[in-house]
Amino acid sequence: LGDIFWLLYPPLKITNIPEVQIFEQPKQRGMRFRYRVEGRSAGSIPGEKSSENNRTYPSIQILNYCGKGKVRVSLVSKSEPYKPHPHDLVGKDCKDGIYETEFGPDRRVIAFQNLGIQCVRRREVKDSIVQRITRGINPFNVPREQLLQTEEYDLNVVRLCIQVYLQDENGQYTRALMPIVTNPIYDNRSPNTAELRICRVNRNTGSVKGEDEIFLLCDKVQKGTVPPVYS
């Protein structure tokens, strides 16, 4: 009976190994990627729980660890293998498209409040990827040949990649935890990935017999790609 019990109810796996978890995902739609030439702020990536009255941001928590560390955030491609993305992160503590900062033992949850996405043009993709290679920004060690296949990069969607480094006995940040990625973030400028919105409707009531003609005016919808569903 004892053997059967443990087969039906295996013991919970308890580990003391430090690991990174997503505390709040970024909001996937509604943000516009900005070009450098626009000369305007790229804004801040909101969290998925963010609202007009309560602004939240993407955040992580580090389990089974209390001490100092360093966190690096970069952009990677939507699909595996996760390649460094040519777009840049911009904002406080960002340099060359990468965000880096240190944290102390009191930081249970680390939120990324000032991260914006600055996009590059298709002709600038190769130069941006070469810069990533030169700086050693390749969290998932994708072969160089694949990184340079620039036509495969989707410029309308990115993911955040979070890498955490903990202090060793010498106080150096050499203990790298497994990198993690967030849900995809889509550029609101692109018709294929934008947040759909009904701008105007000609009527909001109808006969129970049906057959009423209704016109919906929407923005950023490509013809034939979005079927209407009524419920």
TrEMBL record:
GO cellular component: cytoplasm; nucleus
Pfam family, one: RHD_DNA_bind
Record-annotated RHD domain positions: 15-192
Any one GO MF annotation of this record: RNA polymerase II cis-regulatory region sequence-specific DNA binding
PROSITE patterns, sorted: REL_2
InterPro entries according to UniProt: Ig-like_fold, Ig_E-set, NFkB/Dor, p53-like_TF_DNA-bd_sf, RHD_DNA_bind_dom, RHD_DNA_bind_dom_sf
Coiled-coil intervals: none
GO biological process, alphabetically ordered: canonical NF-kappaB signal transduction; cellular response to stress; inflammatory response; innate immune response; nervous system development; non-canonical NF-kappaB signal transduction; positive regulation of transcription by RNA polymerase II; response to cytokine
Protein name: RHD domain-containing protein
Species of the source: Periophthalmus magnuspinnatus
